[in-house]
Design a protein that fits this description.
mainly alpha, about 45% helix, about 5% strand, 3'-5' DNA helicase activity
């Protein structure tokens, strides 16, 4: 007879966290990226806190760009913020066996891929300015959607401060 797996329930608790800023949402989503579908709320809170926990270090999660982003906050408050992010529809919880793991919602993934594309573009421009190569080879392991967004930002025509364009799509010039 097959063994029955019983899912343990969980309770989301936002505490006093009624809303998150855009920067807080992006930080939570960026920190969650390497543990999506493999880790849960506790591990994510440790990444955001900047914990030296053995599991965080064993999986090189201290290299996460948002590692320690909320180092000034308590783990309880960070968990409340993650729960708010879940209730606001940026992340959801799915069970892998008996364990609840975090996954992006469509809305959360849309924000994450744009934030990651910005990081990719910054890294590319930094490498290019320093004459480093090998960036393109590293992109082979990156989600193609993120690469396309980054390349789109690289090739997008600049819009002047006035925000106006001529009918042909080039910036309008003002007479002096």
């Amino acid at each position: 007879m097959a063994r029955r797996i019983v899912e343990r329930g969980f309770r989301l608790d936002c505490g006093d966290v009624e809303a998150l800023s855009d920067d807080e949402v992006v930080a939570i989503l960026r920190a969650a990226d390497p543990i999506i579908a493999t880790g849960g709320r506790t591990l994510l809170s440790k990444i955001l806190k900047g914990s030296r926990d053995q599991k965080v270090l064993a999986h090189d999660l201290d290299g996460n760009p948002c590692y320690g982003a909320f180092s000034d906050k308590t783990l309880a408050l960070i968990t409340n913020m993650i729960d708010r992010c879940i209730l606001d529809g940026y992340l959801t919880i799915r069970y892998e066996g008996r364990l609840p793991v975090l996954v992006y919602t469509d809305n959360g993934w849309d924000i994450e891929k744009r934030a990651y594309a910005d990081e990719l573009l910054s890294a590319f421009l930094s490498d290019a300015s320093q004459g480093k190569d090998g960036f393109i080879e590293r992109m082979q392991s990156v989600n193609p959607e993120c690469v396309r967004i980054a390349l789109g930002k690289l090739t997008a025509p600049a819009v002047p401060a006035s925000g106006k364009r001529s009918k042909r799509g080039s910036p309008t010039r003002t007479a002096r």
